[in-house]
Amino acid sequence: MIPMRANQAGFTLLEAIVAMVVFSVGAFALSGWLATNMIALQRVKAQQERERALASALDLVRRSNPMAQEEGYREVGDLMVRWTSRLIEPAKPAVSQSGTPGLYAVGLYRMQVKVLRGASQIDQFEVRQVGWRQVRASPEP
Fold first, then answer.
1. How many CB atoms sit inside 10 A of residue 131's CB?
2. DSSP secondary-structure letter at 72?
3. How many CA atoms lie within 13 A of 62 on its CB side?
4. How far does Cα 84 stand from its chain's mean position?
5. Degrees (nearest 5) of the Cα angle 49, 77, 109?
6. Which of 15, 84, 92, 113 could tie 71 with a disulfide, CB 3.0–4.6 Å?
7. Pick from 73, 87, 71: which is nearest to 131 by CA?
8. What would the pLDDT profile of 35-85 be if each residue is shown by its tens digit?
9. How far apart are CA 86 and CA 66, in angstroms?
10. Dihedral, CA atoms, 126, 64, 68, 107, nearest 10 degrees?
11. Backbone angles phi, psi at 6, to 5 degrees
């Protein structure tokens, strides 16, 4: 057997095992934290995608005239937007800010909107929308 000197440098086997255990515990904690952050990131991305789809659907519905088409659908890329509308306030002649009769009759509609991607529904919402119909010809200049 070789005698140990008092000033001998180096690690013992026990010190090396303890160091590996400490490193492993830290690595497991770090991997768990990383996995949790990846799941949260995926949820945020899915929510952002959903918000973009709903914003597109709302923009599309705002451009539609429920008085001309009470129900229908439009496809935008891989999204399909379906709506049905119900009259809330009957059509009345529009009046300009100066009090003169306008060119249009307007009515208020409640629109039920469904946003679909493929066969699955992303979301649905309700919005109030003005419908219009031209009732007078524009004056000649």
1. 22
2. E
3. 6
4. 21
5. 80
6. 84
7. 87
8. 999 999 999 999 999 999 999 999 999 999 999 999 999 998 889 999 999
9. 8
10. 60
11. -70, -30
Q: How confident is the model at residue 8 (pLDDT cuts 50, 70, 90)?
A: low
Single-letter amino acid code for the residue at 113: V
In the three-class reduction of DSSP (H, G, I as helix; E, B as strand; rest coil), residue 79 is classed as strand
Give the torsion sign (CA, 115, 121, 122, 125). positive
* Cβ neighbours of 133 (radius 10 Å): 14
- By the 8 A CB rule, do 104 and 92 touch? no
What does the pLDDT read at residue 96? Answer: 84
pTM: 0.70
Query: What are the DSSP E strand ranges found in 17-119?
Result: 71-76, 79-95, 101-117
Instruction: List beta partners, residue 133.
Output: 105
Per-residue pLDDT, 4 = 59
Element (H, E) at 42: helix 13-62
Tokens, residue 48: 């952002």
Please state, in angstroms and rounded to a whole number, the distance separating the CA atoms of residues 138 and 74: 31
Q: Are 141 and 118 in contact (CB under 8 A)?
A: no
For the chain, the straight-line distance linking the first and the last C-alpha, in angstroms and rounded, comes to 116
